[in-house]
Design goal:
heterodimer; A: 302 residues; six-stranded mixed sheet; four-stranded antiparallel sheet; 29% strand; B: mainly alpha; Arc Repressor Mutant, subunit A; 2 domains; three-stranded antiparallel sheet; 6 helices; 3 strands; elongated
């Protein structure tokens, strides 16, 4: 697999009035990946996606999709597919009409593919999409985005409002489509559980900043939870690991750490356990609130 | 053709679960040499998992000599798991039973023993150098 770059940002920032919705955002998403963009509501996920499709103009820094500025239009936009939050569609139009419309609005358009996909999952293309279920509407939006044959597909909370079955079906269609086209995917969500098996790249956003980004397997390999006696904590982590999140009782320290390399030999009484993707995301999301947690821990110790 | 199933409670990595299921199917005869594995896209869609995960599992199976790709597409089983490894198994098991007895005599409780085995297995298989040794050994066995 070549490690070409699908999406790259450098010092990217966007401000609404005096508040920064996204700041100092520097990341690189290689091609062929399925990336999860996670973070609480208001963290800047939608802003980042809108910057990537050129719907917003950066106030700082730059964003490139396959090396091009998405606001330049033309070829840059032809390579991007985007499904906005709540999958907005013209509700009085049928799927067949929307597919026809898409054909008029896009340079390259595979209408047959869209029809085929929708037929495959038994979605009526002759009824107004407003009359379809939420899950079916999401499938129509996905089929439209895929008809463009994008090299980068961005999806903003595509499954958040769907019931569990519709979510699963949506992810099935998406994974099947990626399997035959090797499209790079970036999808935002606050539901990590649904993404755990689908994504191999992770971007964690919080309070307008990127807290963590990288290959999922590498990130999991780089982190451990260390548990041991509090009095030897300094010796246990000294010079070997960066503490991401710590909680302490009077005797015990529990540290989620980032290791620079292989796990070093542990001091007496210490053990290391693997982290899950969820542990990792939660730890990095709590980084902002860590000062408070530590104080609470200190108080408990006294 | 087999249908892949994932154990959602298992901590085993998804690609490894796929590999283990193929091996298990070979052992019990659900799969035989010459059989075809489901296509990458179909597995990804059926399980709603990343196609790269399926590719990774199929690549490992190929490296272990269990499968091969054929021109025109498709992954087919060529190897079999029964045979040489089974012959050694009885002896290895006896040695393990012996070792476990000694560990117990030394005062280790069940959890201590499990933890010790677990960490040793990890340090052996997780370090890149050790992994190379193990893989080549497997590959060279008839």
């Amino acid at each position: 697999m070549t490690e070409e770059t699908a999406l790259q940002t450098a010092g990217l920032g966007k401000r609404y009035g005096r508040a920064w919705a996204l700041r100092d955002c520097t990341l690189r998403l290689p091609t062929g990946r399925i990336a999860a963009l996670v973070g609480p509501n208001g963290a800047g996920k939608t802003t980042l996606l809108h910057l990537a499709v050129g719907l917003l103009r950066p106030d700082e820094g730059e964003v490139r999709v396959f090396g091009r500025d998405p606001r330049a239009g033309g070829q840059a936009l032809a390579e991007i597919g985007f499904v906005a939050q709540d999958t907005p569609l013209y509700r009085d139009f049928s799927a067949a009409e929307l597919i026809k419309l898409g054909g008029k609005l896009n340079r390259s358009w595979d209408a047959a593919l869209a029809h085929e996909r929708l037929a495959h999952i038994d979605i009526p293309t002759d009824r107004p999409v407003g009359k379809l279920s939420g899950g079916q509407r999401a499938q129509v939006a996905l089929a439209l985005a895929l008809a463009k044959r994008p090299r980068l597909l961005l999806l903003d909370e595509p499954i958040a409002s769907l019931d569990p079955l519709a979510r699963h079906e949506f992810m099935q269609t998406l994974m099947g489509a990626v399997g035959e086209t090797d499209t790079t995917v970036l999808l935002s969500s606050h539901l990590l559980a649904d993404l755990e098996r689908a994504c191999d790249f992770l971007i964690v956003l919080q309070r307008a900043h990127v807290q963590l980004s990288g290959d999922v397997d590498e990130l999991l390999a780089q982190h451990r939870t260390l548990i041991g006696p509090r009095e030897t904590e300094a010796a246990a982590v000294a010079g070997t690991a960066t503490v991401i999140r710590a909680s302490r009782t009077d005797r015990q320290s529990t540290l989620l750490v980032r290791l620079p390399g292989a796990l070093p030999a542990l001091a007496d009484g210490w053990r290391a356990i693997d982290v899950s993707l969820e542990d990792l995301v939660l730890a990095y999301l709590s980084v902002g609130a860590q000062a408070k947690t530590e104080t609470a821990g200190e108080l408990a110790a006294k | 053709m087999i249908e892949f199933v994932l154990d959602s409670r298992s901590k085993v990595a998804t690609y490894m679960q796929l590999i283990l299921q193929v091996k298990q199917a070979l052992r019990v005869g659900l799969l035989r040499p010459g059989d075809q594995l489901p296509g990458v896209r179909d597995v990804a869609q059926h399980l709603a998992i990343n196609p790269n995960t399926v590719l990774k599992a199929y690549r490992e199976l190929r490296l272990e000599g269990l499968t091969e790709g054929r021109p025109g597409g498709g992954t087919f089983l060529v190897g079999t798991l029964a045979g040489p490894s089974l012959g050694h198994q009885a002896q290895l098991r006896d040695e393990l039973v012996d070792w476990l007895g000694r560990a117990r005599t030394a005062g280790l409780a069940r959890e201590d023993i499990t933890a010790l085995i677990d960490t040793t297995v990890r340090s052996m298989f997780d370090s890149p150098a050790a992994e190379g040794v193990v893989v080549s050994k497997e590959a060279s066995s008839p």
